[in-house]
Amino acid sequence: MNEVAIVGIGMHPFGRHEGVTGMEQGAIAARAACKDAGISWHDVQFAVGGSHESGKPDRMVSMLGLTGLQFTNVSNGCATGGTALSTACNAIMAGMYDVGVALGFDKHPRGAFASNEPVHPVDGGLDWYGGSGMAINPQFFAMKINRYMTKHNISQRSLARVAAKATRNGAINPMAWRKKAFSEEEVLQSQMLAYPLTQYMFCSPGEGGVALVLCRADLAHKFTSKPIYVRSAVMRSRRFGSFEVKTSWLPPEEEVGPTVDASKAAFEQAGIGPEDVDVAQLQDTESGAEIMHMAENGFCEDGEQEHMLERGETEINGRLPVNTDGGCIANGEPIGASGLRQIYENVLQLRGDAGQRQVQNDPKVAYTHVYGSPGISGVTILSR
Amino acid sequence: MAQQVSVNEFVLDVSGDQPVLMGGRCEACGNVTFPVLQGCPKCTGTDIERVPLGREGTLWAWTVQGFPPKSPPYLGSNDPATFEPFGVGYVALPEVIVEGRLTEAEPAKLKEGMPMRLTVEKLFDNEDGDEVVTFAFAPMDAGE
Lengths: 384, 144
Fold this sequence. Notes:
The structure holds two protein chains of two kinds. Chain A is of the alpha/beta class. Chain A has a single domain, classed as Thiolase/Chalcone synthase (Peroxisomal Thiolase, Chain A, domain 1). In chain A, strands 3-2-4-7-1-8-12-11-10 form a nine-stranded mixed β-sheet. In chain A, strands 5-6 form a two-stranded antiparallel ribbon. In chain A, a hairpin with a 2-residue loop joins strand 5 and strand 6. The mean pLDDT of chain A is 95. Helix content of chain B is 0%, strand content 43%. Chain B is built from no helices and ten strands. A five-stranded mixed β-barrel of chain B has the order 6-7-8-10-9. In chain B, strands 2, 3, 4 and 5 form a four-stranded antiparallel β-sheet that branches. In chain B, a hairpin with a 6-residue loop joins strand 2 and strand 3. Strand 9 of chain A pairs antiparallel with strand 8 of chain B.
């Protein structure tokens, strides 16, 4: 089986961009990634793209060039970027192609994501679930962290620490949307959206595009002097009993979520453990998610986050830097691009090209994790 | 006097003295879902019996909805000028843990494990002047 290397990365800045469509942002990222790898769109043998609501990604060939390549569209909610990458890796590992592009983009309207399809059967009446004031994403994240905080003694101050860190990191990231650093007090005093989560603890739907050029690892040095290798790219869906977004009921028996399953499988594939990871990008839909995902991905025991955050261990200069680019909280969440943004950041960190936010531990292994509706997780492990 | 009408009779029966939630019990493995599903997500069985759920349980997880939900799908008023935050939580009934609105929206008065009982809350008045209601859980020590 072939190994896979990332030899080119490109990004359209995240944020709000009047007059630029989501797909154009994806195309700009794709051209930048090709340029970074020193190739043209002609050299791309296949592509995998994801977008939640900015059009079918394969339509992008009319902007990039009608070369006749295979172009596969993928969609897995917030984990779409992870799916794009793992699908592209599979094609190279299987020996179907040598060089391909994984990309994602989106442009969402303002305000919290709203479901426009009923989640449950509506026999004999109205859409009772959303109709009754449920099926709202922030409620799920709030209930999950509220329960976790009670069980494992996590304070609301810790939630504020995560959000403040995200905005500090975003402030030194030229590609980030939110470049204003908030203090912990400002975070705590912003509007309470879903107890215990305040407005500044949440990410917002946004815009952006990211693309990666991937190739067979043994060809990588043709394109770059700093190839980054994909050690694992794993997707998992939920099992019976895990607590997930938009579920109107749960069985009495509890099961771990898809993040735990994806993380274990990814470490197993890579043949390393959490202690080997030098920098991590973890899904931070809101600051509670980052806290829970630290433990679900194996980086600490439940409850240890309180002291880790107090001691600044997840800061850029800490023992395990987490969300060094500001995460979803500072970058917003264009669904199709979000998971690939994490990969982009980790490639920069592993190349030593992250500028002001370069981690100082001479990173060799980098980890990404996405989580999304309806209970799906994607984990990738990269190394130099 | 205005009558109470269920937001969806398939999930909430308000025809008797007390409101009742309707779940689905898998005849193969006994797993209970809310609402009734056509297949069992636990054992993949397809023989599902419609059953009334117990009306009392304990609070399993909770939050407070602090901003007006988007409408649609929300059927209640989401006018920011009059919107009042409402509680949302999961309540562990004897058969299954069910998500619902909570009549209590004050964080200091909500605690995991507290006893809760099924009740109803008004969403809106329909064209016939009836109250369209959905289900909610109320703390038991607060009475009904």
